[in-house]
Amino acid sequence: MSAAEPDAGLPLTLDRSVSRRELLKGAAAGVGTLALSGGLTSFIAACGGNQTTTSGTTIGPNTTGTLTVWHYSSQQDVKTVQDYTALFTKKYPKVDVKLVYVEFSETPKRAIAAAAAKQGPDVFIYGGNEVNAMYKAGVFKSVDSYWQSFAEKGQFPDGVITKFNNKVYGVKGYVNLTGLWYNKNILDAVGVQPPKTFDEVATVFAKVAAAGKVPIALTGQPTDQGDWTAFPWLTGYGFSYKNPDQTAIEQALTLVNEWARKGYLPKESVQWGQAETFNRWVVGDVAFMENGNWNIGPASRTVGSKFTYGTAPLPTGPKSQGIFLGGEALWIGAFTKVADLAWAYMQETLLSKDGLLITLQESGGIPARHDMANLTQVTSNPLLAAYTSEVKDHGAEYPPEGGAAIAAQSVIAQNWSAVIGGQKTPAQAAKDASDGVKANYKP
Amino acid sequence: MRTAAGARATFPAVSRSRARLRVRGEGIFLLPAAVYLLTLALYPFVELVRMSVSQVTSDNIFRDWPFIGINGVQAVATTADFHEAAVNSLMYVALVVGVGLAGGLAAALTLWRGGRVAGFTLALMVFSWALPGLINGVAWRFLLDPRGMVDSILGLFHIAPVYWLVDGHLPLISVALVNAWTVVPFATLVFRAALLDLPPEILAAAEVDGARPRQVLRHVVLPLLRPSILVLGVLALVYAFKSFDFIYVMTFGGPGTASTTLPFLSYRLAFEIYRYSQGASVALITVAIVLLLALLYMRQVRREERA
Predict the structure, then answer these.
(1) B235-254 residues touching A, CB cutoff 8 A
(2) pLDDT band at residue B168, thresholds of 50, 70 and 90?
(3) How far is CA B235 from CA A190, B181, B229, B240, B242, in A?
(4) pLDDT band at residue B126, thresholds of 50, 70 and 90?
(5) Could you say which of A71, A433, B140, B203 is the most buried, measured as most Cβ atoms within 10 Å of its Cβ?
(6) Secondary structure (H, E, C), A363-397
(7) SS (H, E, C) chain B
């Protein structure tokens, strides 16, 4: 939207005790330390006693009830959520956990619509950029009282704790981000290595294309998934939401436009989300893929012996690069009638070592707990090494500006998609993107 | 006489009373439809109008909405995004109506005379028409993928992939053609019914006068089909204008904003970036256009009924 808008720049009433950027920096430092520590310590299973005291109520193995959990794990990674539930029901066998799949981009809309009818799930597993809108619409219940009495809260860096109005609402147990996946068979056949800088990319891609292979797959959707994918390339040239430099945007968009024009990047990537990108890459004829560490589990199950693969940090640009730090947080629904059970689910799954181990093994999520820093599974996993180095060097707050940039993110995603699909020239898209971000980002 | 006259005098009173009873009875049967319309059509529409003239964000979506008047609607209507979506909508509607009706007429003429093949074809067409738009859209998304069936078949003739849904402005045309494809069966059924109703003696007279098939079509059949064409045209226009499902599943308004129409822009504003007032304003303008078209349709129907 470029003209006057009645809603433009919604005033954020969010009052955070510590800024999101500071919090995420904390998370980045925490996880970076965790990743780089490299020591081996034996893993001790968590889960203290047989009973959990939650906000004055005691629940235990004989507690009965039904717990509804909304998640968006597709068929590829739904096992992770199923395993969380198995972990929970091991301790609370009489609780019936209903896992409800709600597509990622539909989750906020359905949650807000449900809140209008004073309904919704007991637990959300959600890590998108619309948490701010969901909070404002009254979708979440604060977990502050539970959190304050949670014995292991000190294990979590501030950066993974989401607060609104100084109260804790959501906690991310692990961190996710994008990196560069590669098909080693193709790279060996062509005789190239993963590019380390933007300048190297064109040469490497040209060699791959000359060998009859597809150089790269990434998300070109005009959605927040497109924005997530575009951000490292844009920031690598100096873009930020506070300073949407047109030249920087044009440089990044020229890069990706050339890939699409030369056939290095399939044009149909404008339709791909991250899952479709992964599906295309596992076919076996694509050399690189920009995608997240959450594909570690699905890759081991899907690729099998089809080809050898690895991960590398994304190529870096001339300016300080930012890579969004995502990951799913757990939230309690505002209208739950079993808040104690919902908290118990949080505690037993994504806040516990056992739960985070499931995430690590199934989908490669990097645990945020300090006491998992020395885990062999983290420090010795070659696929995770690229990601842990990125967390330390390039980790950036997500959602950017605490969710205040959501309309500006949409502008970026649309123009990213437009240059890949050939709707706009890089120059036109850069102008539209720069103007659009300026008009829509008013913190 | 008096008695008789008195008895006669009571007749109107009795019939009025019976009529009232009858009306009351009919009213009960109308109640479900009235409740349905009030709750699922009128109430949402009133809320839509209220939202478009109010300042509604995630902050106050479930609280009071400050009144901002028509300014919000005016502001949205002046944005570049709105203008682009309006132009896209016009192109989309023109394609859906044009291709849908032309295809329907062609199919109806082909299947006019009936027979087993015609019956089977009609059954297939009704099946594809009855499928939900989302399912149709997903199926066509796979068919039109560069690695899908359509481009694969073209590849057999050494034709390069067309990139129906991902290249420049072509996606808008591709989605509109798919949408038109779903209009064709309905149009075929209506046109075929109208063709079967044509007076055979007129057609026979045209043949006796030596008119060729093309001349019969142009000077006899098409003029006689005019009422059906008009009614069907307005219906297809309304259907195309409010179309959302095909764009949602096939292109999500992209690449960029290349296939964003007014209904999709409304969705994006309200549910992607949570500018509810703006989304409602775009929806209100769209509804106004559709209502205008619906009024035209009703007027046409009445005219046909009178004729």
Answers:
(1) 251-254
(2) confident
(3) 58, 15, 10, 9, 11
(4) confident
(5) A433
(6) HCCEECCHHHCCCHHHHCCHHHHHHHHHHHHHEEC
(7) CHHHHHHHHHHHHHHHHHHHHHHHHHHHHHHHHHHHHHHHHHHHHHHHHHHHCECCCCCCCCCCCCECCCHHHHHHHCCHHHHHHHHHHHHHHHHHHHHHHHHHHHHHHHCCCCCHHHHHHHHHHHHHHHCCHHHHHHHHHHHCCCCCHHHHHHHHCCCCCCCCCCCCCHHHHHHHHHHHHHHHHHHHHHHHHHHHCCCHHHHHHHHHCCCCHHHHHHHHHHHHHHHHHHHHHHHHHHHHHCCCHHHHHHCCCCCCCCCCCHHHHHHHHHHHCCCHHHHHHHHHHHHHHHHHHHHHHHHHHHHHHHC
Nearest to A280 by CA among A342, A211, A218: A218
Q: Is A249 on the interface with B (CB under 8 A)?
A: no
**Beta pairing partners, A182:** A288, A310
Q: What is the pLDDT of residue B21?
A: 56
Please report which confidence band the pLDDT of residue B12 belongs to, taking 50, 70 and 90 as the band edges.
low
The terminus-to-terminus CA distance of chain A in angstroms comes to 17
Query: Which residues have CB under 8 Å from B181's CB, separation 6+?
Result: B100, B103, B128, B140
What pLDDT was estimated at residue B301? 73
Which of A132, A227, A256, A270 to mutate to test binding with chain B, by most B CBs within 10 Å of its CB?
Answer: A270
Q: Tell me A244's DSSP state.
A: -
| Angstrom distance (rounded) from CA B276 to CA B60 | 10
Q: What is the mean pLDDT of residues A153-160?
A: 86
User: Which of B58, B79, B168 faces A133 most closely, judged by CB atoms?
Assistant: B58
| Integer Cα distance of A64 and A404 in angstroms | 40
Show the tokens assigned to A355.
Answer: 């739960």
Chain A residue nearest residue B84, CA to CA: A1
A137: Cα separation from own chain's centroid: 22
CB B134 within 8 A of CB B127: no
Amino acid at A405: A
Cβ–Cβ below 8 Å for B278 and A6: yes
pLDDT attached to residue B164? 94
- Among residues A395, A393, A386, A28, the alpha carbon closest in space to that of A181 is found at A386
From chain A residues 220-239, the ones with a CB under 8 A of any chain B CB are 220-223
pTM: 0.81
Domains in chain A: ranges and CATH: 28-175+328-364 (3.40.190.10), 178-324+402-440 (3.40.190.10)
* Lowest mean pLDDT across A35-44, A108-117, A354-363: A35-44
Burial bucket for residue A244 (CB in 10 Å: 0-12, 13-18, 19+): buried
Select from A7, A223, A265 the residue whose CB has the most chain B CBs within 10 Å, as the one to mutate to test that interface.
A7
Nearest to A401 by CA among A23, A5, A141: A23
Given this model, what pLDDT does residue B26 score?
72
- Cβ burial of A362 (10 Å; 0-12, 13-18, 19+) is buried
Please state the ipTM of this predicted complex: 0.81
Give mean pLDDT, residues A199-215: 97
pLDDT of residue A377: 83
